[in-house]
Amino acid sequence: MNANIAILQFIALRRRLTDEEWEAVDRIVGDSLPAFHEFMAVCKEAVGIAGYRVCLLLRLSVRGKDIAQMLGVRPPYVSKLSAKVLLRLWGETGSGKMLRSRLAGE
Question: Is 2 exposed, middle or buried (0-12, 13-18, 19+ CB in 10 A)?
């Protein structure tokens, strides 16, 4: 299944994802972006499970609002978490947009 189609199906649920659904997202990223997935696996402990999930979804170009829904949190939390991940992984301050660019290797 195409990674984008699979992720769109999760977004369409419009609710917090279950652990099994998160495992499926993890597999989708591993299958479609193996080098990125390997990088994130190394960073997972440093950013925590929520930060890891935000990174996976940002890399797949999921909107912050949809990420918040999938995590079961409010959008400001996703922004705060994105800034925290950016600081921990790259030592930079910035926004979710900046983190998205970093994760894409730009």
Answer: exposed
pLDDT in tens, 44-55: 999 999 999 999
Chain Cα centroid distance, residue 62: 8
Q: Is the pTM of this model over 0.85?
A: yes
Six-digit token pair at 71? Answer: 């995590």
Q: Tell me which amino acid residue 85 is.
A: V
Per residue in 77-94, pLDDT (tens digit) is 999 999 999 999 999 999
Alpha helices in the chain (DSSP H): 3-12, 19-32, 34-59, 64-71, 75-90, 96-103
The conformational region for residue 15 under phi > 0 = left, psi -120 to 50 = alpha, else beta, is beta
CA nearest to 96, candidates 56, 46, 80? 80
Virtual torsion, Cα 10, 14, 15, 17, nearest 10 deg:
10
Closest CA to 56 of 36, 81, 73, 42: 36
